[in-house]
Amino acid sequence: MDEGKLSAVLGRAGSGDADAYAELFREFQPRVLALCRYLLGSFEDAEDAASEVFARLQRSMKTYDAALPFPKWLMSVASHHCVDQLRRRRVQQRIFDPPDERTPEAVAPQTSPLEELVSVEEQDAVRAAIAALPERSRLPLVLRYYNELSYDEIAATLSLSRANVATLIFRAKQELREALARNEKVGKNPKLAKAHKGTY
Amino acid sequence: MDCFSELKYSIYVDGELPAEERWQVDEHLLECPRCRPLVAALRREASLLSDVLQSTPAEALETATGLGSALGILGAFSGMVAVAVGVVMTLTWAGREFLGSAPLFNPLNRAAIITVFVDAALYLANQGASMLYSIVTTLSALMLGFLVLVAVRLALRRNSLSMGLLAGLGLAFLLGSPAPATAMERRGGTVVTVPASQTIDDSLFVAGQSVSINGTVNGNVYVWCQRVVIRGDIKGDLFTGNQSLEINGTVEGNVYTYSQNVVVRGHVTRGLHAFSANLEVDKDGQVGTDTEAFSGDARVDGAVGRDLNLRVGTLEMTGHVGRNVHVQAGDTITVFAPARIDGNLEANVNSSDHVHIEPGAAVAGKTDVHLTEKAPSRYSQPRFYVWQAVRLGAALLTGFILFLLFPTLFAGRIESALGTLSAVGIGFVLLIVPPIAAVAAGITLVGLPMGLLGLMAWIAGLYLAKVFVAAAIGRMLVPPGADPKRQNVAFALSLLLGLVIVFVAINLPYIAWLTKFLVLLLGLDLLGRQVLVTWRRTRSRMA
Predict the structure, then answer these.
(1) Considering the entire predicted model, what is its pTM?
(2) Of B303, B380, B414, B511, which is least surrounded by CB within 10 A?
(3) Which residue in B14, B43, B61 has the most chain A C-beta atoms within 10 A of its own C-beta, making it the best mutation to test that interface?
């Protein structure tokens, strides 16, 4: 859907046209579902959450500021919904404790950044590894690189400090490199995690 | 100046450093050849993560936890089979209840099964035992090779325990398998003769080219060969598949035969059940009780103790039948003198002048001649459409229940199946391999139930293939509906549309066999692909 068409559809949606919502659903449901899946960690929960987001869309559209790109806004609505769901699961309101910032690089100083993935299988492996990360690493990582939220926005969403967010994202990347390197050792994805040599 | 931490570079790359710190990093990078590559690598990593996540295909995640584990897949398939069987049986019952004497409703075309069976039997009859033998040896060799491969692989991983276990298993398998029937005597060879002087107390199993039984067998006789001649005495039943069967001696039990030519000159004390091209009961031949046969041509000059039930091309008789004669003949029925029928003669023929009864021939009871109406084209019968509608309903219900239970299995797209079908041929493999594997498993006694179960699952898969293709076609034509609350209704409608298309396609005149085959391949491919994807995801999640 190009921008012109999208804004037309949004205009119709604003005036309560049910068909417009149907079009928005078709266009964005897969992305929303994938986001919910990453954030919630289970497909069943993700389906419920995505359905809920679209069911409430008509109401939440009132808060939509046309200055923002719609996809970005919709994804942030969805991520807020998911984070609320996760909060509800916890007794305390905080999703998880902020990281210990004294030793930010303690995880694995040896791993080097991931680069170039050639095949679809390799991309699949990265997605699977992300999905398998613990919640506290997965959420900030997904909000940052899938939703493209700023550190401040992530901090607000997860009720953490900006510094916490930076640390968590950094650790998440290191955990991801480690997980993929383990796969490589097992011989599953030999091309993965190409080491960047001589950087230290 | 000291280098910054990787954490700081990570924040820098994400564009989240405050302006002042960013300048510091900028400056440092200008003069530090060690940090520049690190930052470049971090930048590529960030864009990679972004790319990979942004391009997440919806179905990739859909299947990630859709079914959980391998056990889940097995459970799901059993569930599908159960659903299909349940729905089909219920509708069969309902159909028979409400539609009266309509033909038995069956998901698998019975006529097709019979054809396959008959063709296979004919082929086996021609090729005889040598083919069975070569199949068994080939499969054994394949299995042995597979075991060796697995053992080598395990050995390479230095998994000595598993290797020992496996080697033991293999040995046990090799030692244990070649004894399918210890309770009977087995003979083989090109020419097998049981001499007149010999008595065999057991049942006898013979495979050969030419078999003569001149002596006495106290048990049953199972013969698989080209030519069988019985001159001796068989106290039990005779089961045989052959090109030509001659009974000159005595069979005290029943005779079950699948032959090209059957000639009875001696005695069959009980019944004769034949499926043959030519059947002859010679003037000296006697069948103690009933004679039932599907045969191209039949000639009865001898005696049949009770009923004679035939479905033949032509029948000629001069002999004696103790009770009723019931014949359905494609061509003519001729009863010559001095034939004698002690009961009724009921003949089904195409034209009344196809029945000739010579004046000297005697029919004690009534003579009924029914004219078989030429079967009109099935397409002109309303019943055909009613039954197709019932079948369509069954498939729709099956597909819908499966969709409610296992939505992820319907994620396959027909385009992807068509695109890769020629390259991978999953459907073809699934069509061919399971029955072979099932037969292979059935060779050992332990594997027999597994083989049978596998075969049943495979047959169920053949039925489900149609449903999967219909679902994929329906989805291609009518993309999933907008309202998440109405997904089920939308699916049911698109499935209905797909099923109508598939049912029309597999009932087209002249090319139905081709469309059926294609639907089978496509459906198995779609199903197999989804199961494979699920399996792979499950494994990568467990890793």
Answers:
(1) 0.37
(2) B380
(3) B61
Task: Break chain B down into helix, strand, coil percent, rounded to 5.
Answer: 55, 20, 25
ipTM confidence score: 0.78
What pLDDT shows up at residue B177? Answer: 45
DSSP A199: -
Q: In chain B, whose CA is at the least distance from the CA of A44?
A: B66
Q: Which residue is closest to B12 within chain A, CA to CA?
A: A166
For chain A, give every domain's residue range: 3-88, 114-195
- Nearest CB to B52; choose among A44, A127, A198: A127
Q: Which amino acid is at B47?
A: S
The partner residue sitting opposite A117, judged by closest CB among B48, B58, B483, is: B48
- Answer yes or no: is pLDDT of B93 > 60: yes
In the CATH hierarchy, which fold is given to the domain comprising A3-88? Rna Polymerase Sigma Factor; Chain: A (1.10.1740)
Longest CA–CA separation in chain A, Å: 59
Burial class (CB in 10 A: 0-12, 13-18, 19+), B13: buried
User: Is A114-195 the same fold as A3-88?
Assistant: no
Backbone angles phi, psi at A189, to 5 degrees: -135, 75
Instruction: Return d(Cα B271, Cα B292) in angstroms, integer.
Output: 8
CB contact under 8 A, A43 and B62: yes
Q: How is B43-85 classified by DSSP, letter by letter?
A: HHHHHHHHHHHHT--HHHHHTTTTS-SHHHHHHHHHHHHHHHH
- Give B46: exposed, middle or buried? Use CB within 10 Å, 0-12, 13-18, 19+: buried
Confidence of residue B245 (pLDDT cuts 50, 70, 90): very high
Question: For the segment B145-191, what is each residue's pLDDT rounded down to a tens digit?
Answer: 666 666 666 555 555 555 555 556 555 555 544 433 334 677 777 78
Q: What is the CATH number of domain A114-195?
A: 1.10.10.10
Minimal CA–CA distance to A75: which of B396, A197, A83, B309? A83
pLDDT in tens, chain A (200 residues): 677 888 888 888 878 787 888 888 888 888 888 888 888 877 778 888 888 888 888 888 888 887 888 888 888 889 888 888 888 776 544 556 666 555 444 444 456 667 666 566 777 788 888 888 888 888 899 889 888 888 998 888 888 888 889 999 999 998 888 888 877 665 444 333 343 333 33
Q: Tell me, what DSSP letter sits at residue B322?
A: S
Q: Please answer yes or no on whether A166 and B7 come within 8 Å at the CB atom.
A: yes
User: A112 to chain B nearest CA, in Å?
Assistant: 8
Rg of chain A taking only CA atoms, in angstroms: 19
Give the residue from B245, B239, B290 showing the smallest Cα distance to B263.
B245
Contact A146 B54 (CB under 8 A): yes
